Amino acid sequence: MLVAFIESFKYVGHLIPVACLRIFLGGYYLKHSLAALQSDFIVRAYLAEDIRNHLPVSTAPDWFRWVLENAVIPNWQVFAIGVVIAQIFIGASYILGYLVRPAAILGVVLSAGLMGSIGLGGTGGLGGGGYLASIGLQATTLMLVLHLVLGWIGAGRCLGFDYFFYKRRRGLWW
Fold it and tell me: What are the start-end ranges of the E strands in 19-74?
């Protein structure tokens, strides 16, 4: 496995800037997930309060607003734990360069869900000062694009463990 890691420089060394971006984004996700674990994000209904406060002014589609009202708000703790676990998985996967494509798909789902919560026609200035207001639509769109690019390129092949599996088992996930 160590030999494959060193070979990844030789064969896909042109992806080093993308690998650095992947590692930075993984650190970003790990930092925010650990901050959520250390705070009371899972214990207090911050997610439900933000969504409840934003729904009257949201420009999200009606079906997505219905899902937020009837599934996310009543089960806020399950969704908060799911978001934190997904962020930990994405962060660890991006840093190690292992299972980058499934992590990128999960990142696209998280970003699209956040964009739906903010609303596609929103301005990012949501008011209320909650979690959704701190992110903004432009930053969420950028994260969505970064996840798509990292998944499409297969960014774990350079400076990561995906090259080892890509070399031996060519497939969609590597």
Answer: none
- Which burial class, exposed, middle or buried, applies to 169 when counting CB atoms under 10 A from its CB (0-12, 13-18, 19+)? exposed
Residue at 168: amino acid letter: R
Least confident span in 32-36, 52-56, 144-148: 52-56
What b/e sequence results for 135-166 when a residue is b if at least 16 CB atoms lie within 10 Å of its CB, and e otherwise? Answer: bbbeebbebbebbeebbebbbbbbbbbbbbbb
**Predicted structure pTM score:** 0.77
Q: Which residues contact 111 (CB under 8 A, 6 or more apart)?
A: 140, 141, 143, 144, 147
Q: Given this model, what pLDDT does residue 167 score?
A: 64
Cβ–Cβ under 8 Å, residues 91 and 103: no
Angstrom distance (rounded) from CA 84 to CA 1: 30
How many residues does this entry show for the chain? 174
- Strand segments (E) across the chain: none
Could you tell me the residue ranges of all domains in the chain?
2-168
With 50 as the cut, is the pLDDT of residue 126 above it? no
Q: State the Cα–Cα distance between residues 99 and 160, nearest whole angstrom.
A: 10
With 80 as the cut, is the pLDDT of residue 34 above it? yes
